[in-house]
């Protein structure tokens, strides 16, 4: 039994710490306020590493994909499909959350007032800065990601010299991941302490809003899993493709729920794709790429987190916020979700991009930890659907893969 729970170990420990923190905050508010500095120290450590983590990880990942330019048509279709399959669940969960408001009028009371970045939205300043130093601030994460992507592409196009830089970036990325792993040792204590202080002056009914938000996500997951997968399969090849998908969907679905890892499920999804009748060379090219690029479950939960936190903070979810939510969700799915070891990066990305109070981070972590398994399920099964769609649009003819070895694809 304990072996079956191993993939959930870190999430269970974290959730336990947050529950204990919530109880302390509600029933022992004086103690909760006393231990708040512990939580602040932990979050500040994360904020200090976020800029090098994002910059180096994204640039390194893009630079490592340089050889994939030889697969221009396939990669282009994969990117279009991945972006589309991130937008659809994001818009859907926002629509559901607007109908079934998870907060139900319960609001988070803060000691200090704050102003979101979207109050007077300046799109130019959100995606760029007027000097390099501005990229070194956690308040400009969107701009940092864009410049990191451009930098990664430039490295990939720089031949042998670029390869040397890419190797150095990979080494630096490994070191940063070690730093993150050291910081994350204190995650249960740090987030538990901060959550306790957040709940110290709140209405206990606030805890119920988590259950509503999570129930909404689980319901949306079931609906999207059934109807979304069927629709995507039909687009990929009509009734025959739908039948082939559902005949082979159980094993990758169970593996996704058991491992909570798209990468860990890759061997199973590859076998399922071939059993579905997808050309072996297309499956071998597409699925390793889709594991990193196609994360509809990540996009859906990112959108729900934003709607949820806006609701509990009593903020107006305007048209401008809607579009920036879609942008953040897509970036979370395609870029942020693919950053290895970037624990809590999604939560920090949301908070810093929208200028939300840091009190929101532990609350978003609660939702993220509980919904990790169903989000992974959507990521994995829709990789199969995306492969069906790619195969249809590039044609059934055998695609030459001589230019790109399976080893290179795995590294990408």
Give keywords:
about 75% helix; mainly alpha; disordered C terminus; about 400 residues; Proton glutamate symport protein
What does this structure look like?
There is one protein chain. The chain has 19 helices and no strands. By secondary structure, the chain is mainly alpha-helical. The protein has a single domain, classed as Proton glutamate symport protein (Orthogonal Bundle), CATH 1.10.3860. Helix 7 packs antiparallel against helix 8 (159-184). The longest helix has 43 residues, at 206-248. The protein is globular. The model is unreliable at 397-412 (pLDDT under 50). It is found in: Cell membrane. The chain crosses the membrane at residues 12-29, 41-62, 74-100, 132-155, 175-197, 209-235, 297-315, 321-341, 348-370. InterPro entries: Na-dicarboxylate_symporter, Na:dicarbo_symporter_sf. This is Dicarboxylate/amino acid:cation symporter. Keywords: Cell membrane, Membrane, Transmembrane, Transmembrane helix, Transport.
The major pleated sheet works out as: none
> For the record, what CATH class applies?
Mainly Alpha
Spatial shape: globular
Low-confidence runs of at least 5 consecutive residues: 397-412
Number of strands: 0
Count of alpha/pi helices: 19
The CATH topology is given as Proton glutamate symport protein
Tell me the Rg in angstroms: 21 Å
Q: Determine the N-to-C terminus distance.
A: 35 Å
User: Looking at the chains present, what oligomeric state does this protein adopt?
Assistant: single chain
Protein name: Dicarboxylate/amino acid:cation symporter
Transmembrane segments: 12-29, 41-62, 74-100, 132-155, 175-197, 209-235, 297-315, 321-341, 348-370
Organism: Photobacterium piscicola
Membrane topology: Multi-pass membrane protein
């Amino acid at each position: 039994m304990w072996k079956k729970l191993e993939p959930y170990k870190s999430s269970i420990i974290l959730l336990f710490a947050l529950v204990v923190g919530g109880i302390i905050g509600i029933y022992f508010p004086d103690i909760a306020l006393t231990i708040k500095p512990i939580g602040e120290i932990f979050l500040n450590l994360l904020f200090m590493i976020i800029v090098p983590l994002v910059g180096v990880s994204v640039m390194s990942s893009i630079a490592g994909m340089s050889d994939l330019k030889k697969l221009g048509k396939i990669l282009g279709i994969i990117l279009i499909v991945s972006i589309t399959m991130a937008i659809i669940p994001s818009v859907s969960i926002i629509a559901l959350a607007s109908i079934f408001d998870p907060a139900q009028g319960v609001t988070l009371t803060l000691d200090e007032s704050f102003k979101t970045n979207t109050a007077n939205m300046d799109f130019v300043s959100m995606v760029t800065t007027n000097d390099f130093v501005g990229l070194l601030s956690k308040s400009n994460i969107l701009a940092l990601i864009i410049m990191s992507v451009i930098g990664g592409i430039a490295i990939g196009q720089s031949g042998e010299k670029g390869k040397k830089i890419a190797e150095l970036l990979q080494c630096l990325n490994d070191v940063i991941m070690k730093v993150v792993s050291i910081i994350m040792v204190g995650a249960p204590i740090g987030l538990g302490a901060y959550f306790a202080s957040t709940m110290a002056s709140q209405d206990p009914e606030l805890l119920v809003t988590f259950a509503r938000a999570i129930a909404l996500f689980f319901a949306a997951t079931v609906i999207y899993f059934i109807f979304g997968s069927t629709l995507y399969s039909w687009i990929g090849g009509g009734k025959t493709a739908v039948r082939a998908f559902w005949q082979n969907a159980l094993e990758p679905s169970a593996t996704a729920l058991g491992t909570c890892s798209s990468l860990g499920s890759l061997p199973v999804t590859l076998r399922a794709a071939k059993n579905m009748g997808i050309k072996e060379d297309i499956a071998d090219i597409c699925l390793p790429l889709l594991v990193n690029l196609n994360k509809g479950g990540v996009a859906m939960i990112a959108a729900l987190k934003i709607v949820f936190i806006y609701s509990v903070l009593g903020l107006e979810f305007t048209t401008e916020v809607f579009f920036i939510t879609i942008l953040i969700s897509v970036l979370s799915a395609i870029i942020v979700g693919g950053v290895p070891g970037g624990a809590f990066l999604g939560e920090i990305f949301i908070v810093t991009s929208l200028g939300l109070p840091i009190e929101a981070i532990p609350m978003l972590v609660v939702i993220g930890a509980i919904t990790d398994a169903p989000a992974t399920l959507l990521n994995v099964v829709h990789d199969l659907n995306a492969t069906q769609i790619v195969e249809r649009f590039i044609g059934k003819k055998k695609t030459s893969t001589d230019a790109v070895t399976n080893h290179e694809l795995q590294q990408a």
